[in-house]
Amino acid sequence: DIQMTQSPLSLSASVGGSVSITCRTNQSIGYHLNWYQQKPGKAPKLLIFGASNLQSGVPSRFRGSGSGTDFTLTIGSLQPEDFAIYYCQQSYNTLAWTFGQGTKVAFK
Amino acid sequence: DVQLVESGGDYVQTGGSLRLSCAASGFNFKNFEMIWVRQSPGKGLDWISNIDEGGTTMSYADSVKGRFTVSRDNAKRSLYLQMNGLRVEDTAVYYCARVRYSSSLNWFDSWGQGTLVAVSS
């Protein structure tokens, strides 16, 4: 299985600030990387697919970048509703999709 | 609007069985691959199974292979997960989700609200 490593696992930030979350894989996956947001007690929500494509309805302050083994989710101008857990997920190996451990973005 | 609604979660003892259902609406269910993902309490997300549009090709994570069976009824717009030989470590919220494909990319664009399975010894 493709291993996913997110960093940091938690961070704190202020409203209006900017944060970046990194996701690394143990083998090259091209652009086959998706990002999800999950709030407490809720289902995950797709933010970014194909490494950098913004899902319809997702604010443009969310930006995905990267390819190969290194990917980044950047949230610019944090809003109160952005405090959540963010997961990366590889979609390269469709026989064994895998997720990162999750990164908790908390209010500073 | 796309809607996925899971049901069937319950409290069971180890070795027991449960059948989860996922009712789909708002899209042409028979045209989409579907998956099950679970989340143990306080933990991350784990893909456990998927089934193709026609219900002929299924895949399973090693952790559930041989114990869980995924199926679907396109006429009823429903996805199922038969869970046998349940273990304490199967305790989790189980989500169904829709798989979207475009070119060589794929992603999970719609999720249900989840159903809780709690297994005790």
In short:
In chain A, 0% of the residues lie in helices and 49% in strands.
What does this molecule look like?
The complex is a heterodimer of chains A (108) and B (121). Chain A is an all-beta fold. Chain A contains no helices and 11 strands. Chain A has strands at 4-7, 10-13, 19-25, 33-38, 45-49, 53-54, 62-67, 70-75, 85-90, 98-99, 103-107. In chain A, strands 2, 4, 5, 6, 9, 10 and 11 form a 7-stranded mixed beta sheet that branches. Chain A has a 4-stranded antiparallel beta sheet with strand order 1-3-8-7, with no helix packed on it. In chain A, a hairpin with a 6-residue loop joins strand 4 (33-38) and strand 5. Chain B starts with a strand and ends with a strand. The model of chain B has no long low-confidence stretch (mean pLDDT 97). Chain B is built from no helices and 11 strands. Chain B is 0% helix and 56% strand. Chain B has 121 residues and is mainly beta. The A-B interface holds A 30-32, 34, 36, 38, 42-46, 49-50, 55, 87, 89, 91, 94-102 and B 35, 37, 44-47, 50, 59, 61, 95, 100, 102, 104-109, 111-114.
Secondary structure topology:
The complex is a heterodimer of chains A (108) and B (121).
Chain A: E1 4-7, E2 10-13, E3 19-25, E4 33-38, E5 45-49, E6 53-54, E7 62-67, E8 70-75, E9 85-90, E10 98-99, E11 103-107
Parallel strand pairs in A: 2-11
Antiparallel strand pairs in A: 1-3, 3-8, 4-5, 4-9, 5-6, 7-8, 9-10, 9-11
Chain B: E1 3-7, E2 11-13, E3 18-25, E4 34-39, E5 45-51, E6 58-60, E7 68-73, E8 78-83, E9 92-102, E10 105-111, E11 115-120
Parallel strand pairs in B: 2-11
Antiparallel strand pairs in B: 1-3, 3-8, 4-5, 4-9, 5-6, 7-8, 9-10, 9-11
